[in-house]
Every structure is written in structure tokens, then in C-alpha cells.
From TrEMBL:
<dbReference type="GO" id="GO:1990070">
    <property type="term" value="C:TRAPPI protein complex"/>
</dbReference>
<feature type="region of interest" description="Disordered">
    <location>
        <begin position="1"/>
        <end position="50"/>
    </location>
</feature>
<dbReference type="InterPro" id="IPR024096">
    <property type="entry name" value="NO_sig/Golgi_transp_ligand-bd"/>
</dbReference>
<dbReference type="GO" id="GO:1990072">
    <property type="term" value="C:TRAPPIII protein complex"/>
</dbReference>
<feature type="compositionally biased region" description="Low complexity">
    <location>
        <begin position="11"/>
        <end position="21"/>
    </location>
</feature>
<dbReference type="InterPro" id="IPR016696">
    <property type="entry name" value="TRAPP-I_su5"/>
</dbReference>
<dbReference type="Pfam" id="PF04051">
    <property type="entry name" value="TRAPP"/>
</dbReference>
<dbReference type="GO" id="GO:0006888">
    <property type="term" value="P:endoplasmic reticulum to Golgi vesicle-mediated transport"/>
</dbReference>
<dbReference type="GO" id="GO:0005783">
    <property type="term" value="C:endoplasmic reticulum"/>
</dbReference>
<dbReference type="InterPro" id="IPR007194">
    <property type="entry name" value="TRAPP_component"/>
</dbReference>
<keyword id="KW-0256">Endoplasmic reticulum</keyword>
<feature type="compositionally biased region" description="Polar residues">
    <location>
        <begin position="22"/>
        <end position="42"/>
    </location>
</feature>
<comment type="subunit">
    <text>Part of the multisubunit TRAPP (transport protein particle) complex.</text>
</comment>
<comment type="similarity">
    <text>Belongs to the TRAPP small subunits family. BET3 subfamily.</text>
</comment>
<keyword id="KW-0813">Transport</keyword>
<protein>
    <recommendedName>
        <fullName>Trafficking protein particle complex subunit</fullName>
    </recommendedName>
</protein>
<keyword id="KW-0333">Golgi apparatus</keyword>
């Protein structure tokens, strides 16, 4: 399917915008903070989170409000320590990469634990479908909306999300309109691909349309070695 190549993101944060924070939704009590679970011995009705069976908590969900608050704090914290939009997106990508490595470990653990004959995906399309469905659902609670392949560049694939959950409560100032907070999601995808031996450079691009103003494209540019291996496996 044809795909319009995103415009390069070359703008930087202005001096005045560096001190401003990205708008976000937060609890009315500004002093509220999240902390690690207590190391004290839990009561009979409050089991320690570290003692939970990983396979029995796969359906558990995190509060959307808590996630939005935490992610907005991450954005603001990172924004104060970078020099421009490109640098901010790289930092978000790095943070997402760390999450992606753990997501892959968890998915592999659960797959091997629930299957008598676990297998490792060796085909590119199978891996992309896994990311589109299992990884997206594990992280965001829903599968992505589409997978596309670039007509012009055979080494490029796109994962489309029409309404990224992490973008819903982030309001980006006009002078930072090129910023895509989904660089965090791109880092997750890059970590999963690297972990499965499909090295690639993954970036996020804003591609809104009239039906989906928050539509985001995760652009995957594969390393040459991946395409060569795909040819041998045909």
C-alpha cells in the first residue's frame, strides 16, 4: 500500500518554550505521588505485588488516569533536560526501549509457560503481526489499527494507531507541533525487534486525518541483514 513519507522533523524547541511545560491532566491534589510497594509484610487481604504469579495477572489493567499523570510527568521531566525536539524524541525513544525489553521478556515467559511446544518467530511478517496485536494489547490494552509496507522502500514498514492512548491527554504547544510523544512507543517496538533479531531503526510520526486527529505512524526501517535473511527463508 502506498504511504506518504512523513516530513522530516527538524524544528527545535525555542528558548521561550523550553521553560514551558506540556499541558496534561493531573489529580486536583498536586502533591499526590506514586511510590513503590511497601516492603513491610502485607496483610491477609493485600498480597505483595512481587509474589504474584506472572501468568495469572495478564488481564490486570492500570488506571488510565494514573498512566496519563505518570507519562505527562515523564514528558515534563525530560523536556527540561533536552535542547530540542529531536533530542526530546530520542530520550523518549530510549525510555520506551527499556520498557520494550521487559515487555518482550514477559510475553516470552507467558507464551512458554502456557504452551507445550513454544516456538520462536523467524519470519518478519509474523513478528510484525505479533507487535501489532500482542505487544500493543499488552502495553496499551488494544491492538494497533493497521500494518502497511512502503511501496517506494521495501525495507520500511508502518504500524498505524489512529488513537494512541499515550497521546490522549498530551497537549503540544504550537511551536512544538512536530513533536510526537509516541516516540516512546517507537522505542518499545525497536526493543522488541532487536530482541527477536530483527534490528531496525524505529521512529514515530504524526499523520493526522479528518477522522483521526491523533493518528500516529510508527515507521520501521529494517537493517539490510533482515531483508537478506528474509530472501533466504523464502
Amino acid at each position: 500500500m502506498a504511504y506518504a513519507q512523513p516530513h522530516p522533523r527538524l524544528s527545535v524547541v525555542s528558548t521561550s518554550s523550553q521553560s514551558s511545560s506540556i499541558d496534561h491532566l493531573s489529580p486536583t491534589t498536586s502533591s499526590t505521588r506514586f511510590s513503590l510497594p511497601s516492603t513491610n509484610k502485607p496483610g491477609p487481604n493485600r498480597p505483595n505485588i512481587y509474589d504474584r504469579n506472572l501468568n495469572k495477572t495478564r488481564a490486570s489493567e492500570v488506571s488510565a488516569a494514573a498512566f496519563a499523570f505518570l507519562f505527562s510527568e515523564i514528558i515534563q521531566y525530560t523536556q527540561k533536560r533536552v535542547s530540542g525536539i529531536n533530542d526530546l524524541e530520542r530520550q523518549l525513544n530510549t525510555l520506551g526501549y527499556r520498557i520494550g525489553t521487559r515487555v518482550l521478556e514477559l510475553l516470552v515467559w507467558r507464551t512458554e509457560g502456557s504452551s507445550k511446544t513454544p516456538k520462536r518467530e523467524t519470519k518478519l511478517l509474523s513478528v510484525l503481526m505479533m507487535i501489532h496485536t500482542k505487544v500493543w494489547k499488552a502495553v496499551f490494552g488494544k491492538p494497533a489499527d493497521a500494518i502497511e509496507r512502503s511501496v517506494e522502500n521495501p525495507d520500511e514498514y508502518m504500524i498505524i494507531d489512529n488513537d494512541p492512548p499515550i497521546e490522549r491527554h498530551i497537549s503540544v504547544p504550537r511551536d512544538m507541533s512536530q513533536l510526537s510523544c509516541s516516540s516512546f512507543s517507537a522505542g518499545i517496538v525497536e526493543a522488541v525487534l532487536d530482541g527477536l533479531s530483527f534490528p531496525a531503526r524505529v521512529t514515530a510520526h504524526n499523520t493526522p486525518n479528518s477522522q483521526s486527529p491523533n493518528r500516529t505512524t510508527i515507521l520501521i526501517k529494517l537493517e539490510k541483514v533482515v531483508l537478506e535473511r528474509e530472501e533466504l527463508l523464502k
